[in-house]
Amino acid sequence: MANRKELDPEASPRAAFGERLRRLREERGWTQDELSARTGYSASHISGVETGARTPTAKFTASTDRAFGTGDALTRQGAATRNSAILDGFPEFVIQEGRATEIRLFEMGVVPGLFQSPGYAAAITSGAVRRGAITELQAEERLALLTRRQQSLARTPAPQIYAVLDESCIRQRVGGTTVMEEQLDHLAAIAALPNTVIQVAPFELGERRSFYTPVTLITLSDRSYVAYAESAQSGQLERDMRFVGPLLTAYHQLAAEALSQAASVAMISQVRKGTS
Predict the structure, then answer these.
(1) 33 burial class (0-12, 13-18, 19+ CB within 10 angstroms)?
(2) d(CA 209, CA 204)
(3) Would you say residue 166 lies in a domain?
(4) Domain with 38 in it: what CATH number?
């Protein structure tokens, strides 16, 4: 029970479903293994749904309704989780991010979520709504989760954050002049924090850039590592050091090639002046 993750059912439809599934199971005195035997899904799968790391599929919710004798209640609630704008795999990443002692990330095109100002984040999600990629409710879900992630970094002790941003992150205008000015000011302020290092990978790096897609590398308190990357449809966590190790090496190579933090802040300031 020491590793039990408490859920906030108000956090997201997935968290609400996970909390209800756990509550129904515990009311009956069943372990995850016992529910596994009744549904045909592994205990680890059930754990993933209960913690919000996995989206409950229609087949999964139908099997749990049969196991609990709840009619179609879980099936109906589960349908709402599949309308989520949060990628599968991302909730599990957020859990690990909240436990991190160190976070290393590389981003292209947009400022990373952890560093986004409210106006910038709202502009990004509003653009997705206008394109029809997500609904207004899904945009609210994304922004609420981003706020919780940013607030988690204020914990004590705070994680050390190392970020390399492709130059496109600071040059691509999002939300208009005022929003970009506020975002660049916010980025410079974050760089001044004692637990944060921000570097810019300039366009001139060319083929010396180690990454061409965003990646996040997390160090946990036991000195184990987790890597996270996204495709268009899902997020993927990787713990196997056969795969994580080369990513760490590539990150350190990129950080060595990127501008120093002082030079990076100077570039951010220069771009900021050019937005006026």
Answers:
(1) exposed
(2) 9
(3) yes
(4) 1.10.260.40
Closest CA to 163 of 125, 207, 113, 128: 113
8 occurs within a structural domain: no
Residue type, 63: S
> Is 198:264 a contact under the CB 8 Å cutoff?
yes
99, 216: one domain: yes
The per-residue pLDDT for range 120-175, each reduced to its tens digit, is 999 999 999 999 988 888 888 889 889 988 988 888 899 999 999 999 999 999 99
22: its two tokens: 């756990």
| Angle between helix 136-152 and 118-130 (nearest 10) | 150
CA distances to 5, 47, 101, 248, 258 from 222, in Å: 18, 22, 9, 17, 29
Q: Are 162 and 194 in contact (CB under 8 A)?
A: no
Look up residue 201 and give its two tokens.
Answer: 């990978």
Tokens 């660049």 correspond to what residue?
184
DSSP code of 155?
A: S
Q: Which residue has the tokens 């039990």?
A: 4
Residues 129 and 68 reside in one and the same domain: no
For residue 241 the two structure tokens come to 């050091």
